[in-house]
Each structure stands twice: as structure tokens, then as C-alpha cells.
Write a structure and sequence with these properties.
Blueprint: E1 2-7, H1 16-27, E2 33-37, E3 40-43, H2 47-52, E4 60-65, H3 70-84
Antiparallel strand pairs: 1-4, 2-3, 2-4
Helix pairs in contact: 1-3
Length: 85
Amino acid sequence: MQSFTYVVKDRAGIHARPAGLLVKTMQGFECPVTITCHGKTIDGKKLFALMAMAVRCGDAVTLTTDGVDEEEAMASAREFITANL
């Protein structure tokens, strides 16, 4: 299992464009992906679930991957998140 915690720096938080791109990126991997914030854990491959979390600037999100291609998925997620959020 791989885990990564990141404090969102984008003033708009996780809004539609980066959320959609993150979900699309994660859907390319076989392993389950979860995102935790505000005490809620959602499937990181579901756009509406991510949008419903209402992640704002300054919120800490934890992304977890577990399974066959977890290392590749985490590397891709980490790269995307640090560059876009």
C-alpha cells in the first residue's frame, strides 16, 4: 500500500478541471485509489465523489493506492497533484 498526504495550495481548492484530470489519470490504473479528506474516504476514480468532498485551499488530502500497479499509480498521482493543486 502506498500513501501520500498533500496540503492543497490552489486558491480554488480541488475544482472541476483538476478533479476531472486527476480522476481520468487514476482510472488508467488497475489498483483501487482512495482519497481521504474531512474524515471522509472516497473512490479516487469517481469524479462526483471527489467534487462532493468540497476540498478547499489549505485542506490536507491523503491519497492511497493498493494493488498490482500501486507504485506507478502513486507516482503518477503525486506528480499530478504537486503540479496542479
